Amino acid sequence: MAENQLGGQQYLILPEGANRLIGKEAQRTNIAVGYAVSSIVRTTLGPKGMDKMLVSELGDIVITNDGATILEEMNVEHPVAKIMVEIAKTQDKEVGDGTTSAVIIAGDLLKNAGNLLDQGIPPASIIKGYEMARDRALEVLSSYSTNVNIDEEDKLLRVAMISMGSKNIGGDHTKKHLASLSLQAIKQVAEKTGNKVSIDRDFIKLEKKEGGSLEDTSFINGVLIDKEVAHPGMPKTVKNANIALLDVALEIEKTETDARIEITSPEQMQAFLEQEEKMLKGMVDKIAKSKANVVFVQKGIDDVAQHYLAKNSIVAVRRVKKSDMEKLAKATGARLVTSLDDLSDLDLGYAGLVEERKISGEQMIFVEKCRDPKSVTIFIRGGTKQMVDEVERALTDVMGALASTIEEGKYVTGGGSTEIEVALKLRDYATDVGGREQLAIQAFADSLEVVPKSLAESSGMDPIDTLVQLRSKHKGKEGKSYGIDVYKNTTADMDKQGIFEPLKVKEQALYSATDAAASILRIDDMISSKGRAGAGAGGMPPGGMGGME
Ligand code: ADP
Ligand code: MG
User: Fold this and answer.
1) Which fold has domain 12-147+413-527?
2) What's the whole-model pTM score?
3) 160 CA to middle of ligand 2, Å?
């Protein structure tokens, strides 16, 4: 219940029983909730990070190390927790990697803001200081980064390997295999205009089927469709396929209920069926005339049409997803045709081989050996469903990391080295700035160090000692790329070790962490409102979800 007082009169502006937190209390709660969310994913950071097992109400199990997936599956209720989850989603969408880092940085930005609030610094000054720090950090990052181009495969493969580092998907040999498949796929779909390279990750299809081993995961120079050939009489293999893509039903449209056809005699019935068959045969004739020997149809194919297609030795696949049709078009050069009358040989695409193969007891259609396809597939195999799912998530991250690195043409060193360097430069900057913002900029620097700190912790190193060591290394000339060697449990030169990460991932993490922290700090009044689902009584448990360190 909330009341307002004005001139002795009392106004009731919220309904009885409504939840409300105001001022410091709201800020305290929100900071605690945000920090609690970040603490959940913190232990998964880096190659020595742990996995989480998530079990749904239905008993589905997800075992993963992927920050975005953990948060998404967790099904959080509190609105501030939802903002934290949003960070991971944005990070995933924009760059495909660095989700855990972004979330834990945001968590520490909140925790440190809590300390500043205790010292009487107003939220507006904290936010301003954080934003100044972010902008300065972006400048430092950019001058700290190294250039790389799409042909420097050794460096790019390192980026891919590091991105996969923390995923539990087999040993080094397997990871190298997956890294090189990913790079091959990325290079194939990359489009160059001048010296700009753009990569549309949507056109790298990740298809998965449990069975076989991780090493069987393969690159397909074309598209793999999880469908079967429509009719047993059709060929299972077509070499030099001329492919038509049809957004047309190879069926006679069913008559509407109010337009019933009256059939009164067997002769009439016969004539009607013959008429139908003639129309379907006519459709197939048009396809045959175009010289297509493989057709992918977005809609249905009538049995009679299937029969005629088979007679013409044309392979047909029905009810193909729209997204697959688009990928087929990009891979084969075919044009999607919406009317059979328009179909000509100019609309056809090409694939060196179209083949139906039985994979773990199910039919799949391989459209491969395409000519310079701008849409390709990685076919993931592995012992269990959990394994192929985790490989899919890992490959999504790798593709994001590779695409970001190639598009921006820059990388930085990992293992916490970049965060230490940026933090160091921010502390100098804080002194220059002075005033209230100084403390916020320092707090921002401290928050970035949560990355090396967490990496040290998961390697069993003393986090404070390690930070002190790294800071002093970075102050010297030679130690600019010192970070944590998580395998040897010591500090080392990350540049020499080839621990490379995309600059863009680090930049995006700064943006999303700062934005999320700022928007959470701006809230000084939490009112549970009716309306959108998920809000309401359960939407805001007073006291938050957990405490702080
Ligand atoms: P995120 O979701 O943030 O990408 P990860 O679990 O993938 O989280 O961990 C990324 C962090 O682990 C980065 O800071 C990266 O530099 C570090 N890292 C990955 N591989 C290594 C390695 N071999 N040595 C040191 N640090 C590594
Ligand atoms: Mg990662």
Assistant:
1) GROEL; domain 1 (1.10.560)
2) 0.84
3) 10
